[in-house]
């Protein structure tokens, strides 16, 4: 889902089955605690992810374009800093120390945002992003160290941990919607601090249990550790004013980050062209083509807390059978589809493969883009059928989110696994990092798309519906077109991924 990047598509049913199959029997010390730590630590991010644009536009009176760009930079920094978190934790601070330090920054950030001014928003976001960007990786590192490489219980533990994250999102989105109905933003962001405080308390209570077991930092002398710790703290604190400065001009910062991503893309193309092994080079080209497809998908997917949310608030009749629906509650459609649709889709794929139908990565990527496009194309249909005030029935927004979430189920589970298949061993770290950068870059493109519809203060649904309809039609048609193109490329991509033996 969100937070550490694109969702893994893991479901509660899979978790339950794993548990009953004994994968988590006699779990190592710390693995159980990390489930609850993960759940509580997710609350603050869920609140900001689902409420930042609404808070900026409704309380601070930012324009839709300003708020969208802020949200884009928020996502880009959050995902981009994940790459550095594992290195900082494993070599300078320890994952345990960095996690607690990061959570302290998140708590301070949410408390600052609760102050209710633009100045405090920038400082609050800088504090929060440094904390969330760096310490998400620490949780995964602490968990994976609990298991030997051949330990079959590792998969079950990560399934449970992923469930904890989704529970945190569900609670965070639900509470955010509760406070949104009265626009009690101060109460909302103070609530966001609660999860951080509980996560810190749990980590301190089980401090020895969560100690690192295998990192480069454990091999240094006490004097070297103290020096590295001091450097790590300086980096951690020094990033806060740096991000504060970059947040002042989100448009320029977004352009800078896009430039960095372009350089990374150019470097990947270069090492692919120069790679000596023909079979591996072909798989690297397949990775690059599929990565472009995923960029289109995630750019539209990340409009959910941005432009789509602004559309929902201003142009959708947010009620169902007389019950008012808070905008943040719409985000939980994704959670429910993942939980319910995941096992059904997995079972269907298993039956297809048993019957000889080759469901593979290129097909899933293509289908996910078509579903994403159909999700966006549902919205112009709803606009055409809107009421006299221009308000779209909630069912069309619901259908859009269901289709987008089904697309996520197809593309997200195979993303990280794909890298292990397609990346040569010496480039796996670089290509994994690049895959994570795609999510940050997609957040910036989502901000660009979201800002295309001008929404002045006196705008109405009737006035803005034509612009939204044109935008959603273009984005939906574009996603379907890319999906169809990938579908046509499936035979070519299969030959790249599985080249004939004689060509190796």
Q: What features would you highlight for this structure?
A:
504 residues, mainly alpha, Growth Hormone, Chain: A, 2 domains, two-stranded antiparallel ribbon, 2% strand, globular
Give the total of beta strands: 4
CATH fold type of the largest domain: Growth Hormone, Chain: A
First CA to last CA: what distance? 37 Å
Q: What is the CATH architecture descriptor of the largest domain?
A: Up-down Bundle
Give the tally of structural domains.
Answer: 2
Order of helices and strands: HHHHHHHHHHHEEEHHEHHHH
CATH superfamily of the largest domain: MFS general substrate transporter like domains
Helix count? 17
Helix content: over 70%
Q: Roughly how many Å is the radius of gyration?
A: 22 Å
Spatial order of strands in the largest sheet: 1-4
The CATH class of the largest domain, by name, is Mainly Alpha
Tell me the strand percentage band.
under 5%
Q: Give the averaged pLDDT, no decimals.
A: 85
List low-pLDDT spans.
4-10, 19-24
The 3D shape can be described as globular
**Alpha-beta content class:** mainly alpha
